[in-house]
Amino acid sequence: xxxxxxxxxxxxxxxxxxxxxxxxxxxxxxxxxxxxxxxxxxxxxxxxxxxxxxxxxxxxxxxxxxxxxxxxxxxxxxxxxxxxxxxxxxxxxxxxxxxxxxxxxxxxxxxxxxxxxxxxxxxxxxxxxxxxxxxxxxxxxxxxxxxxxxxxxxxxxxxxxxxxxxxxxxxxxxxxxxxxxxxxxxxxxxxxxxxxxxxxxxxxxxxxxxxxxxxxxxxxxxxxxxxxxxxxxxxxxxxxxxxxxxxxxxxxxxxxxxxxxxxxxxxxxxxxxxxxxxxxxxxxxxxxxxxxxxxxxxxxxxxxxxxxxxxxxxxxxxxxxxxxxxxxxxxxxxxxxxxxxxxxxxxxxxxxxxxxxxxxx
Length: 361
Ligand SMILES: C=C1C[C@]23C[C@H]1CC[C@H]2[C@@]12CCC[C@@](C)(C(=O)O1)[C@H]2[C@@H]3C(=O)O
Ligand SMILES: O=C(O)CCC(=O)C(=O)O
Ligand SMILES: [Fe+2]
What we know:
The chain is globular and about 60 Å long. The protein has helices at about 5-10, 65-75, 90-105, 105-110, 150-155, 160-185, 275-280, 335-345, 350, 355, and strands at about 60, 80-85, 120-125, 140-145, 210-215, 230, 240, 250-255, 255-260, 270, 290, 300-305. The protein contains ten helices and twelve strands. Helix 1 (about 5-10) runs parallel beside helix 8 (about 335-345), helix 2 (about 65-75) packs across helix 6 and helix 3 packs across helix 6 (about 160-185). Bound molecules: Gibberellin A9 (J5X), 2-oxoglutaric acid and fe (ii) ion (FE2). 2-oxoglutaric acid binds near residues 215, 234, 241, 289 and 301.
């Protein structure tokens, strides 16, 4: 955990404090400050009508056709919701309770656990805030393991329950993410032999890594001129998101535009990450998504970013390559990819494309 890909990437690309420390949202509940006023482009088509058009697929993990449904969802959307995933509803309720408990603390108390410029863990603005002139109307808390140091700064005598819940959720997410990852790979015709790195032998540094990130989007005085989370793709292999019951998440789909991801009680959202896009040689898309705000609901969400062990190079899988489909990307570790993202944001793929960097031997 000390030398994780994520921690190493933050060390190489520190974040300025003015892109870490959130606003006191409660003190600005009446008027949106200029620092948070976005000129939102009008070239997006209006959001699709939820009753007439296609929406993000919902897959029952017990469905006999689960593999082909998964492949279709990953090729067409890069995102789907899963039900019958086996995560206990009381754990999800407790997770939401602890998350709301954290974000409802006064700002000065949350700042006791603020991230430092070279660290990924703790309280602060989304990392992608460095790429925009205006700030987003959101705050977050990043966890790897139980994050006792930061939690005990928030609640000096009363952090055990928070840490226990987060740790239990991380354990459950790890198993479920690996199960869904296996499903995605089988749906592409791959066997466990093809992806041995997925289940590395325990011990040493060869362990998959993950980050649990809690997101909070307070009620906003002027939602149409503010941004919850700007359009981005996830820098993971796979992200599992619990969005509780508030609206706001949208995913971008070719020929459709921005489509809302309607909350379904107890369901989890699965998001294809950039590394899965690379592994599948572009066959599975890592989709753009964003979060818009509302005037009346304080949205929270919990995103579990799953990635490969620190020394594994991710590149298009052999089975995805032939003379018609040459390898589009060169091999990268997760750290190298996070660094490319920290420098080039949504253009990161361009920097690891084969035709840009190396000539094929
Ligand atoms: C493992 C990850 C995933 C990161 C980068 C790194 C650590 C921080 C993560 C997030 C969490 C919040 C949304 C996001 C968009 C952000 O701003 O910081 C994520 C980002 C990404 O998916 O790129
Ligand atoms: O809040 C959400 O639903 C989206 C969060 C997200 O996209 C992220 O954390 O990467
Ligand atoms: Fe995301």
